[in-house]
Amino acid sequence: MPLIHRENINRGEIGVWNISESIDDLYLLARLSEPDLYSYNEIKAPHRKKEWLTARILLNELTGEQTRIAYHNDGRPYAENSVFNISISHTGIYVAVFLHSKAIPGIDIELITRQVGRVATRFLAPDELSSCLDDKELSNFRLLMHWCAKEAIFKMIPLTDIEFATDIRINYDGPTSNTGTFQGAFEFKTGSVPIPLYYRILGELLIVWGSIEKTELECHIQSIPTNLVK
Questions:
Q1: 3-state helix, strand, coil in the chain (%, to 5)
Q2: Collapsed DSSP state (helix, strand, coil) of residue 9
Q3: Same structural domain for residues 123 and 183?
Q4: CA separation (Å) from 212 to 144, 153, 169?
Q5: Collapsing DSSP states into helix, strand and coil, what is residue 179?
Q6: Cβ(13)–Cβ(99) under 8 Å?
Q7: Burial of 181 by CB count in 10 Å (0-12 exposed, 13-18 middle, 19+ buried)?
Q8: Is the pTM value of this prediction over 0.90?
C-alpha cells in the first residue's frame, strides 16, 4: 500500500498516502459502513471520491482499527468513538492524517510548486508579507510555508469567522531546509496563544503541523464541541 510516510509525534502520529489506486480498489480497502456508504454515494467528482476514501483508509491504518470519520457542524472532522483527535489534509494525489490522543491537531500539505503570491494579501499581515518577499529566491517557499501554517492552525481552533491575516500569526523567515520548526500564534480576543509548528519536505510535498492543548482553548473559548477533545 502507498503509505509513503509515517511519523510518531508526541502522543500522536502522522501518515501520508500517495493515491495510486483506482476508485474500485480504494472502495474495497475502505470497507465502508452503511452511513459512510450513503455519504460516499453523494460525492460526484472522481478525485473527491478518491480523497474521501483514502482519508478513511489512512486513518484505519494509523489507528489499527476501523474508525469512522464524522464532522462537527462547522465541517471539522473527528474520529467517532475514538481516543484520537484528528486533522486531515489533501492536495493532488496526496492525503495526510494527523491524529493525537491529547491535544487538538492541525495539519496542512501542499505541493511545493504551488504559487500563492497572487492571494498573499488575503492571508498575510503586512509585516508577514514583507518578511516573505525580502528574499526573491525564497519568497514563494516562505509564502507557501505561511499558507500551510495558517491552514494548520485554522484547523485547530473551533471558531467561525477566523481572519487569516489578523487572527493567525506566523513567525517564519527561514531557508528551504528539509525539516524544521517555527512559531505561530492565534490571537483570541482574550489574548494571544503561541503554537509551535513543525514542517517537513517530502519529495514534492510540504507538510506543516502542530497542536494546541485543550486547556489553552478552555481559557479562551467557553463552549468547546464535546467530540473535539477526549
A1: 35, 35, 35
A2: strand
A3: yes
A4: 22, 9, 15
A5: strand
A6: yes
A7: exposed
A8: yes
Q: For residues 38 and 76, give the distance between their C-alpha atoms in angstroms, rounded to a whole number.
A: 19
Cell of 150: 495558517
The per-residue pLDDT for range 32-60, each reduced to its tens digit, is 999 899 999 999 999 999 999 999 999 99
User: Could you tell me which of 155, 160, 163, 55 has the C-alpha nearest to residue 106?
Assistant: 155
How many independent structural domains does the chain possess?
Answer: 2
Element (H, E) at 150: helix 139-154
Pair 152, 210: CB distance under 8 Å = yes
The answer as to whether 228 is a domain residue is no
Cell of 53: 476514501
Domain that holds residue 144: 111-218
Quote the CA–CA distance of 189 and 167 in Å, as a whole number: 9
Burial class (CB in 10 A: 0-12, 13-18, 19+), 228: middle
User: What's the pLDDT tens digit per position in 103-145?
Assistant: 999 999 999 999 998 899 999 999 999 999 988 878 999 999 9
What single-letter amino acid sits at 19? I
